[in-house]
Each structure stands twice: as structure tokens, then as C-alpha cells.
Design goal:
This protein is about 40% helix and about 15% strand. By secondary structure, it is α+β, with helices and mostly antiparallel strands. The strands form four sheets. A four-stranded antiparallel beta sheet has the order 1-6-7-8, with no helix packed on it. The protein has a three-stranded antiparallel beta sheet with strand order 3-2-12. Strands 5-4-9 form a three-stranded antiparallel beta sheet.
Length: about 375
Amino acid sequence: MTWTDRTLAALGITRAADATGALAAVAAPPRTPSLGDPRGLTAVHRALQVLTTAAAQLPLTVERGGRLLDGTAVPAFVRRPDPRMTRSTWVTHMVTALALYGNAYALIERDDRGNVLALRPLDPRRVMITVNPTTHALIIGVDGRTLAAADVLHAHLQPQTVGDPLGLGPIQAARTDLQGARMTRDFAAQWFDGTGQPTGVLSSDAATYEDAVKVRNAWNGLDADGNRVDSSLNPSGVKVLPKAFSYSPLTINPREAQWLEAQEFNTLQVARLFGIPSTLMLAAPSGGSMTYSNVEQDWISFVRFSLMYYLRPIEEALSDVAVNGQTVRFNLEGLLRSDTKTRYDAYAVALSTGFMTVDEVRALEGRDPLITEDTTK
């Protein structure tokens, strides 16, 4: 064992071997910032909620030669990638992994004939990718097992460098900004308990220090030694002060105490990070005006330039697993639809020009095809 191998072993990292026994170059595990769980930030949780909710409601379609497949022609793993869960749950797992770690994995299970039976989502934190320096083949390690790249579906976002097999997620790309947001949240949460900021001052022109301590302890429900007398004592109840003592509350502007401006800024920063319109984050920039037209355009821009950033890698990964010639796509029509009247007007134009059929329109609206009678009988 070389010095490098001993060092890697001490860090819990081992080199994987490919099918020929050649050692592969060690690649870093998925990048995880030292933020704890970033979903503890309200803005990040909301951003993930928006992304996964939008993605989970989209149906998956399969094309071959430019024509949509329907019925039993659609592979079973597209209709339900993992039989243990619903399709929407599977999509939620994959989008969440991409957003948090930049990479999403699923173990491909096949039958004896090579048909795909299931795509089991894997925890990105337990997956390690190595690259063979000679063949450049990817070797994937999962919980101590070495798997070939053909046995794992791997969807990833844009890599940090050219040739990097791992994608770089927004959490890793903006770790410093998220750390600042977490520190702002923690500081606001422990403003009164952890900063030594008093809620008021007891004062007297005649009392000694010992008298002042006794009055302070009595005010706070403590005995002479500073121990709480009654744990059920209501600190905000009626208080009685001895002669010559007065109480002056220290009022703090809630805007200053809660750092509202800083928290609002952090929310908008997270919205920019994930590419989500501020309206969907339930926040709005100061001085901004929202109209129906603005919100609609924001939604369309979100679908095209933000949501597709996460959906496209999943589409390509599923297409790689499908039979040659089949292309898997998310149907975005449901998210791009505008109000009912505008939608129906567009359908009327498509029907009158022969661009669409009635059954195609009904399919977009989630309705079954029309059943026509056979008049030849």
C-alpha cells in the first residue's frame, strides 16, 4: 500500500477497481456544505417545495420518431419508475437530490432479459463516483459495493469544471450566502436570550447594591440565591416594587429585533439562487408591483429557465435507460396553461386550422377521448 493509499484509507476513502483490475482515480464525494440541513432555512424549504410540487404534477411522455407513444407502448418504468412509490414521489426524490446535492441517482434493477423493473432512488450522500484514468469509465460505489455506470441512473446539474462527473448544486455554489442567512436567522432567534439584552431596568436612588439584587431576584421570581422559586410563575404578571424603586422597560423596535430587512433580503437571495419568482416564494422586493401579467410571465419564465434546469437532466437520464429510439419527456403543457378563456381560445384556433384534434385537446385538459359510434353497423 502506497503512502497515498494509506492516507486515503485513514480518511475512509478507498480506491475502486474497474472490471480489468485497474485502479480508478479518486473523485470527491458529493459536495455537502457545513450548513447542517439547509432545509432548516425557511426560504430553502419553500424553494424546494415549489420545485418539487411543480415537477411532481407533470406527466412523463415517451416519443419515438417524433410521435407520442400511448397505452402499453409506454415502458412500465416510465409510468412508475419505482413500484414501491408513486411516480410523483419518485420525481420528488430526484428533484430534491438535484437541488440539494447537484446529483441524483437511482439503482437500475433488471430482469433476466435486461428489461428495466425498477429505478430505486439512492441517497447521494452514500454514492461515490470514481473515474478510470485509462478508459475514463465511471465506476460508482454505493455502500461499499462497486457498480458499473450502466447499473445506475445518474442525473446531474452543470458540473463545476469541464470533465467533472459530478454536478454542482445551488446549495454548494452559494454556501457562503446560505451561511449568512443561517447566521441571521440564529441571531434573530436568540436576540433576547443569548445577547444579554435586558428587557427592562430596575432603578433606585436610595437602595444599596444588596437591596437592588434582592428586588431584582424577586422581580424575576428567584430566591436570594438566584434559584427560581416557582417554575410556573408568570414573568409577565403583576409586579410590586418596594419604595424608592422604579421600572423602565427597554423597548426594541421589532424591525430591529427580528432583522426583518435582512431576512427579506435572504429570502430574495435564495429565490435568485434557485431561480424562483419572488411571488412563488411568498415574498416581494421592496417597491415592486405585481400584476396578473407580471405573475403569468414570471411563471412561464420559471418553467422554462428554472424548472427545466432540474427536469432536463432527469429526462436525459431516463432516455438513456429507455430502448434506443425512445425519448422521455416531461409534458409541460399543464404548467404553461394560462386562464381558461385564453386556453379555450387557443384550442379553437388549433381546431379550426386542423393543427389539433378534439381528442388531443381533451388529453391536454385531462379528459378521456370521445367515444364515437360505429355508423357502419
